[in-house]
């Protein structure tokens, strides 16, 4: 079974600094997608960034970037120039291509941004 | 961009009562999903629905749960006899693209 592990229940960062959130996953599949979601107190799920496993290039979305290490099954999220609005729960998620394509989530990391 | 809408945003129900959570997925999508998030925990897959049939369900999705698409637009999740532990956020998703998550229904069972 596929599993997603986020080993940091909580992280904190100073405003304008950089923080990296860790995620590892376990799968025997070769074709899959990885995602980072942000969940603010409203509890809405907001997609931050996605990565296709077949792409070697790391995905980037403005201040958000990933370090995707396929062999190590690692998918970390780097937030640069952290802003107060980045404070939220962050969930790493995985889905395989094909079948029902359900998402499998990690337990999340609570990010606090200090002014 | 089209959105997935969920109603109600918050529902309070008494233990043992039936509840129906509603979702309006994006019209031309074919796969639909329900996920659950108990407060403070991770998001968990409940069920996927394709071509008017359940395509996959998790261990959580027991006989108390059912899904249907009664009129070709709404996609519903029914819990027949709610328990305290059913209190959670329930998210509907339309297709596998995770941009298409609804804003959730917060179910409180008292």
Architecture overview:
- The complex is a heterodimer of chains A (115) and B (110).
- Chain A has 115 residues and is mainly β.
- Chain A has a single domain, classed as Sandwich (Immunoglobulin-like).
- Chain A contains no helices and twelve strands.
- Chain A has strands at residues 3-5, 10-14, 19-21, 24-26, 32-39, 46-52, 60-61, 64-69, 74-79, 88-96, 104-105, 109-114.
- In chain A, strands 2, 5, 6, 10, 11 and 12 form a six-stranded mixed sheet that branches. In chain A, strands 3-9-8-7 form a four-stranded antiparallel sheet, with no helix packed on it. In chain A, strands 1-4 form a two-stranded antiparallel ribbon.
- Chain A is globular and about 45 Å long.
- The mean pLDDT of chain A is 94.
- Chain B has one domain (16-104): Immunoglobulins (Immunoglobulin-like).
- Chain B is built from no helices and ten strands.
- In chain B, β4 (31-37) and β5 (43-50) form a beta hairpin.
- The chains are: A mainly beta (115), B mainly beta (110).
- Chains A and B meet through β10 and β11 of A and β4, β5 and β9 of B.
Compact summary:
The complex is a heterodimer of chains A (about 120) and B (about 110). Chain A is mainly beta. Chain A has strands at about 5, 10-15, 20, 25, 30-40, 45-50, 60, 65-70, 75-80, 90-95, 105, 110-115.
Layout of helices and strands, plus pairs?
The complex is a heterodimer of chains A (115) and B (110).
Chain A: E1 3-5, E2 10-14, E3 19-21, E4 24-26, E5 32-39, E6 46-52, E7 60-61, E8 64-69, E9 74-79, E10 88-96, E11 104-105, E12 109-114
Parallel strand pairs in A: 2-12
Antiparallel strand pairs in A: 1-4, 3-9, 5-6, 5-10, 7-8, 8-9, 10-11, 10-12
Chain B: E1 5-7, E2 10-13, E3 19-24, E4 31-37, E5 43-50, E6 53-57, E7 65-68, E8 75-79, E9 88-94, E10 105-109
The overall pLDDT of chain B, averaged over residues, is 90
Q: What is the architecture of chain A at the second tier of CATH?
A: Sandwich
Task: Please give the order of strands in the largest beta sheet of chain B.
Answer: 2-10-9-4-5-6
Return the string of H and E elements of chain B: EEEEEEEEEE
Provide a count of the helices of chain A.
0
* Greatest contact between two chains: A-B, 21 and 23 residues
Number of strands of chain B: 10
**Helices and strands of chain A: which structural class?**
mainly beta
Q: Which segments of chain B are poorly predicted (pLDDT under 50) over 5 or more consecutive residues? A: none
Q: Give the quaternary arrangement of the chains.
A: heterodimer
CATH homolog superfamily of chain A? Immunoglobulins
The number of domains of chain B is: 1
CATH fold-level label of chain B: Immunoglobulin-like
Count the beta strands of chain A. Answer: 12
Q: What is the top-level CATH class of chain B?
A: Mainly Beta
Helix content of chain A: under 10%
- Distance from N terminus to C terminus of chain A (CA atoms, Å) equals 41 Å
């Amino acid at each position: 079974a596929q599993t997603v592990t986020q080993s940091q229940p909580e992280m904190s960062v100073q405003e304008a600094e950089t923080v990296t959130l860790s995620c590892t996953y376990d799968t025997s599949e070769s074709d899959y997608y990885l995602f980072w979601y942000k969940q603010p107190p409203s509890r809405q799920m907001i997609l931050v960034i996605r990565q296709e496993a077949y792409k070697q290039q790391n995905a980037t979305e403005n201040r958000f970037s990933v370090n995707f290490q396929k062999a190590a099954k690692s998918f970390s999220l780097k937030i640069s120039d952290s802003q107060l609005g980045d404070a939220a729960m962050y969930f790493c998620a995985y889905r395989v291509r094909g079948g029902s394509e359900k998402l499998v989530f990690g337990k999340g990391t609570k990010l606090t941004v200090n002014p | 961009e089209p959105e997935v809408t969920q109603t109600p945003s918050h529902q309070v129900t008494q233990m043992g009562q039936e509840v129906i959570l509603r979702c309006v997925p994006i019209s031309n999508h074919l796969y639909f999903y329900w996920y659950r998030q108990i407060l403070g925990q991770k998001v968990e897959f409940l069920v996927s629905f394709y071509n008017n049939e359940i395509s996959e369900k998790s261990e959580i999705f027991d006989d108390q749960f059912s899904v249907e698409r009664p009129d070709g637009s709404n996609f519903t999740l029914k819990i027949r006899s709610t328990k305290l532990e059913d209190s959670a956020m329930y998210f509907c998703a339309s297709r596998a693209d995770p941009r298409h998550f609804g804003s959730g229904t917060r179910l409180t069972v008292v």
